[in-house]
Design brief:
Layout: E1 2-3, E2 5-7, E3 10-21, E4 26-37, H1 38-42, H2 46-56, E5 60-63, E6 67-73, E7 87-90, E8 94-96, H3 107-111, E9 115-117, H4 123-126, H5 128-136, E10 146-150, H6 152-162, E11 175-176, E12 179-180, E13 182-186, E14 192-195, E15 200-204
Parallel strand pairs: 1-15, 8-9, 9-10, 10-13
Antiparallel strand pairs: 2-3, 3-4, 5-6, 6-7, 7-8, 11-12, 14-15
């Protein structure tokens, strides 16, 4: 899977999934590209209208390799059921951004999330992270922490301005410093990761 490309005001999400064809022993690649211009999302542009249609009709996209991509939100603002800020659920356990769309997941679905990729530190992409941690902390007792993956500058903002025991409790140390519900993990451009219950291949794009 390829994910997370931010250049200036443009947000590009790419997902690439490989699957093995048994008879031919070849690899087929399913490519899904979602390109959202953030400037357009904050304005009433045709891009926003198109993505709003996706949300209103609760479309769930099935991608090659049995990967499931669920669009939880892709707007730059809130207001009515059609506007939820950016968040995508990959399979059942990987979030790409954590905007207000995360709130549509049930508590049982939230508890299954093991990884969160944050593209950047704007509130419309991160506000679901602390709320999710608070919601599932007791239900995930005894499980590994939810891993939040982001560039160093984004993690620094989360540490200083979100999990600072002023705006929100520091869930990287709760319920116990040795067994927190959240852990923060730096990623870098060009890095390849394999994670999730289905061991999805994720590449951080420049």
């Amino acid at each position: 899977m390829r994910a997370l490309h931010v250049v200036g005001e443009d947000l590009e999400l790419r997902i690439r999934v490989d699957r093995r064809i048994v008879r031919q022993q070849q690899r087929a690649v399913g490519l899904l590209g979602v390109r959202l211009l953030r400037e357009g999302l904050h304005q009433n542009s045709p891009v926003e209208n198109a993505t709003r249609f996706v949300i209103e009709n609760a479309v769930e996209i099935l991608v090659a390799g049995a990967m499931r991509l669920r669009v939880l939100g892709c707007s730059g603002s809130i207001g009515g059921q059609q506007n939820r800020t950016t968040s995508f659920l990959v399979d059942q356990d990987i979030l790409i951004d954590a905007g207000t769309g995360v709130g549509d997941l049930s508590l049982a679905e939230l508890t299954l999330i093991d990884h969160i990729f944050v593209t950047h530190s704007h509130l419309d992409h991160v506000l679901g992270v602390p709320l999710l941690a608070d919601s599932v902390m007791r239900r995930r007792a005894g499980q590994p922490p939810i891993q939040v993956h982001a560039l160093p500058a984004t993690l620094a903002v989360l540490r200083e301005h979100v999990f600072n025991n002023l705006l929100w409790p520091d869930f990287t140390r709760l319920p116990h410093p040795r067994h927190p519900v959240l852990s923060l993990h730096e990623i870098s451009t060009g890095q390849h990761l394999r994670l999730g219950r289905r061991e999805r291949h994720i590449e951080v794009l420049p």
